[in-house]
Design a protein that fits this description.
The chain is α/β, with parallel strands linked by helices and 284 residues long. 36% of the residues lie in helices and 21% in strands.
Amino acid sequence: MSSPVVVETITGIRSELEALRASGKTVALVPTLGALHDGHLAHVTRARELADVVVVSIFVNPLQFGADEDLDKYPRDLDGDLAKLQPFGVEYVFVPTAAEMYPGGGTQVKVTGGPVASLLEGRSRPGHFDGVLTVVAKLLQIVQPQHVTFGQKDAQQLFLVQRMVRDLNIPVNVEVIETVREADGLALSSRNRYLGPNERTAARALSRAIEAAQSASDRGIDTVLAAAQSVLMDEKLVTLDYLKVVDPKTFLPVDDGYRGPARVLIAAKVGPARLIDTDSLYLN
């Protein structure tokens, strides 16, 4: 397989894709922050199945990082990323700078996610989802793909992107990619690189807490939350941010009488890394 063509400018990627689109080729976009792992490669594999041309964007978007977050330290490894993508036949890797995406240092017009964007991750990371939705909207305008992939692990982000696409009539299929996990259950994340050996072991508590919640799903929401919380409290290196069960149709927390499909969400600090995990369950 040939190496991907690396494109750094908006004009450049538009020019590359214009002729292909005119010839009837379909395009799939895989938006990433880089530091690629097998979870990202699952997106690339699916994108390869969906479209004639695959574009992977690598952009550490400053708008979605708060003042005290890890923007400057976020792992960056373009050479390593390109080597991982090469066997998949990815045609283009779009790697704009912040100055290319945000001339003048920012943007006055932003996409906001409404009430759901202020909950959970949005409450812990104010403005995060405005930054995510704004850059996703820009990438969709720039690349104009028929398909774009988003991961189920970032469930709130996925919900808001799907809502944005629907509300703003953006003509793209949002393809959902299931969470990819290590053999011991830990969800893959670029931030796992921050973990030392003991922290890596402790991080397994997030997926074990989800398993405990799923096992208790026939005993009511209070028991579900208690089962998950007991697992997390037993792990001293894990500092819980939130543990919630939400209705996947609204992404609002379920009440005591709720019955039906639901999603459990966990965010926690493990050493220097802030990690999230999620899975579905059925309350009955």
